[in-house]
Write a structure and sequence with these properties.
By secondary structure, this protein is α+β, with helices and mostly antiparallel strands. It has seven helices and twelve strands. Strands 1, 2, 3, 4, 5, 6, 7 and 12 form an eight-stranded antiparallel β-sheet that branches. Strands 9-8-10-11 form a four-stranded antiparallel β-sheet.
Amino acid sequence: MDRTVVARFYQVEPLEARDRTFFDCLQAIWRSADRDQWTEVATEIRIRLLRYQDAADNADFVEGEFIRQQRDNIPPIAPDIGPLEDQDRPLGHRCAFRYHPRSNVLLLESRREAITPGRINLLVSQKIRRHKGFHISPCLTQTALERLRGGTPRAIEFRVARPADMAIVEGDPLDIEGNLGRLANAFGGPNVEVRVSWPRGDQDGTLSRRGVQRMLRWSTNNRDHVEKLRIKILEEEQPIDVLSEQIKASRELDLPPIADANFEVRRSFLRQTFDAHFRTIERLYGNG
């Protein structure tokens, strides 16, 4: 596991107001009789909720860990002495999390090969009957949020890597993933970059705010493929770089090889990170 751990803040809200909250879904998945079984959320992507508990340091939080099982392209074992040995045991890619139900804010360890917000969404959709899934949006810094809320959206630029490999994680009639995949196949390129805007001479042309919000959620669900997302607003020269402006933290940690001890180190990092940003999160994203 990489010693540099990155964690990002997201707000998680049900697509349908009558559906269960993320907190209720976590509780239900953890209490289910088959919680130890893997759920295949996309081709060859198997995940499950590995740990879940009330936070011992603060009753307002819950915390735990998701894990993804890797069964192909497993690297060989490299012992201290001797040749490389074939590896026939699956690897487990883990992501710890800390969640504040009152504000619906999730702090998730960020690791592309492991558990992304989109994969969590797919897990919930499969495990919780008739649940439509969640809007999972990046928690932006105060400056970026004020610029986005106060500005007039004029253009969006985004770049996607390997669009043909993307899994559809939200029922979207526009089928963004499929269209991008067709573009990549038509030109034989692995990446696709798109700009959506009004002509320069049209001073009254603005983008739909609902469309901008949907793009924010879509990019979050597909974070392992989206490499760039910028929103240009009419009132300013510089665009909002969404991926850079998401509230996050990064630290190099001394991670022990024992799973339980390893989790404790990462859990402590998430606790400290949420504590450091809690006032900002409450002010910008709290629900009263």
